[in-house]
Amino acid sequence: MNALSVQKVSKVYNKTVQALRDITFEIREGELFGLVGPDGAGKSTLFNILTTLLLPDSGDIKILDMDLIADYKAVRQVIGYLPGTFSLYPDLSVKENLDFFAVMYKSDIEANMDLIRPIWRQIEPFSKRKAGKLSGGMKQKLALCCALIHRPRILFLDEPTTGVDPVSRKEFWEILQAIRTQGITVLVSTPYMDEATLCDRIALIQNGSILGIDTPEAIMKHFRGSLYTFRSADIFSLLNALKQCPLQCNYYPYGEHCHIAFYEDMEKAMPQFLQFLEEQHQEHGEITAIQPSIEDCFIEIVKMNSHE
Amino acid sequence: MILKKEFIHIFRDRITLLLVLAMPVALVLLFGFTISTDIHNASIAVLDHAKDTQSQNFIQKLSSSNYFQIVSYPSTEAEIDFQFKENNIKLAIIIPQNFESQLEKEHSATIQIIDDVSDLNIASILNNYVRSVTQDFQNEYNQHITSADAFSITTKMEYNSNMESVYMFVPGIITLIMILVTALMSSITLAREKETGTMRMLFITPVNKIHIVIGKVIPYMIISFLSTIVIIIISVFVFKMPLNGSILFLLLLCIIFMLTAASFGMLISTISTTQLDAMMITMMGLFLPTVLLSGFLFPLNSMPMIFQVLANVFPAKWFILAIKDVMIKGSGFFDVWPYLTILFGMAVVFISISLKMLDKRN
Among A9, A307, B191, B245, which residue is least crowded by beta carbons within 10 Å? Predict the structure, then answer.
């Protein structure tokens, strides 16, 4: 059985903004599914629809074989939601927040303690502190406890690690892996590409459309170009110069480096490229071939889609 | 649980709590005492038609109290009018002819009080003072004689003799408090949950939306109800406002108005997305019309027709009419049921619109 099945879901805001366009995907039970895309791609709209807060304009959604729109009350009992912005009560203490959501779900904290204990143990020392006074990472852990307190079967996490420090991010993903071993299906969105590789499968979303769904490994394997990286003294002038490049290529800044993917026979293309750089008076460091990261793949897929 | 949580919110937010609790007391005392400024040694005139021993005693009594300063002893009523017009006096007292003999033979006498209608609030306070002096005078007189011969003095008031709008400030303040605490606070608390995103968290729980909203509004209704009781206690015991109607019926009336105010707050919160929105809409859409158009500060019948018509739309006017009747005239349900029906009807309409709006999922 699929934990979640989304078929041709569309949503238009104010008749002009197409937030989602024929979104179709399925998540298997117990899967850790990642939704990867830049800000404004439609991730939060999709989460609002999946958490019964928003009605789609068209399309079908089934959560654990229940119709999301018709059976929304039953659906609410089986889903947990961690929104992108901190959405607990800042003036209530950590414990009071947890108690409150437990009562709202008519759930027993003790009975579900085994599920949240690894997370709860970390925030328990602060249980009397006001939630608003917690650090960013602690806030997210508390929010996760609150989202899990009724032992949902599907957990939705909307950018849970945005604005969280790298150490806490790593911890948070370890927690997600642990949650999944408890048989809870997890749908997590993130703008961080490195996190995408931690998912079982990912969907790339851009401008309200899903560009591709696969395992991170498969996506990386399907990189079509030949990827190279090199340093440049003046990356801005380099990027400008590359506009004139006659070769089939896709280039973009990547940290301090420039990444360039060629869609040519490299034996012929590389000498041409070196010559081109020389003609353009571009100084550059060593050009090395590299394995594409998930981000490179995402950029390629976005590029391909914009050409089609 | 939502109820309990809301109370925690309220008690944690000390400043708001202080405001909500202290404001009614402060307002009622402020209004009460500002209207009683200059109340010591108020200038009055006494027209003594009797000129006998008891009338002299009575005048003595008046001037020995530090409430009044008798600035003139006119001999005709025309002179009193003149004094009023010149703004020399705030109040005039007319002692009838044969005051003493009336007291002795009929055991009763009528003293006439003429108020300055231009300042109803001061007039009402002064009236009370005259009554209390009269009461003292009566008690002293009655001490010397057997109870069979006890007499009473009735005061008769001219100008504004039915006391209408004299005690406007108490119903007015009750109205304001109810609107501030119930409508404003409940619309703000709902908007706050929207603003912080916690409303979404509440809405995806299996708990019914209407239960969530009711749970959030009830604490403010309780607080404003307590405030109302405090106001009534202060007005009756400190400012000696009459409470002629049934206290239970008065409280029922307050509860119904509270419901109307709360439903208005709910409606506002469904259309506003931030606390600021909620505040502005409540202030402009409810609070200001209440102050201006309820007849509380500015008499309605002296307003242009359009405002008189507009005033009917806002619940405050009906509530003030009803509460005044109950407190001053001692009216019961059968006298004020039209007002109650209007208030209740408004609440039903507002609540059903808000429920419709809440039910939409977008």
Answer: A307
Q: Which residue has the tokens 């809301």?
A: B6
Considering only CB atoms, which chain A residues are within 8 Å of B358?
Answer: none
Say if residues B336 and B326 touch (Cβ distance below 8 Å).
yes
Residues of chain B with CATH 3.40.1710.10: 42-158
Give the torsion sign (CA, B57, B60, B64, B70).
positive
Q: Does A90 touch chain B (CB under 8 A)?
A: yes
Q: Nearest-CA neighbor of A260 among A291, A290, A229?
A: A229
Q: Average the pLDDT over A195-203 and give the result.
A: 90
Distance CA(A107)–CA(A90), nearest Å, equals: 22
Domain spans of chain A? Answer: 2-220, 224-291
Candidates B10, B200, B208, partner chain A, best to mutate (most A CBs within 10 A)? B200
- What is the ipTM for the molecules in this complex? 0.78
Query: Each residue of A42-56: pLDDT tens digit?
Result: 888 999 999 988 889
Superfamily of domain A2-220 in the CATH hierarchy: P-loop containing nucleotide triphosphate hydrolases (3.40.50.300)
Cβ–Cβ under 8 Å, residues B321 and B303: no
Q: What kind of fold does domain B42-158 have according to CATH?
A: abc type-2 transporter like fold (3.40.1710)
Contact B361 A101 (CB under 8 A): no
Chain B's closest residue to A52, CA to CA, is B204
pLDDT in tens, B41-50: 788 888 888 8
Nearest CA in chain A to B358: A53
What would the DSSP string read from start to end of B216-247?
Answer: HHHHHHHHHHHHHHHHHHHHHHTS-----S-H
Q: Is the pLDDT of residue A201 over 90?
A: yes
- Angle, helices B14-34 vs B169-177, to 10°: value is 170
Domains A2-220 and A224-291 share a fold: no
CB contact under 8 A, A104 and B196: no
Asked if B317 and B334 touch (Cβ cutoff 8 Å), the reply is: no
pTM of the predicted model as reported, rounded to 2 decimal places: 0.71
Shortest distance between the Cα of B196 and any Cα of chain A, in A, equals: 6
CATH of span A224-291: 3.30.70.270
What's the one-letter identity of residue A19?
Answer: A
* Contact flag B204-A52 (C-beta cutoff 8 Å): yes
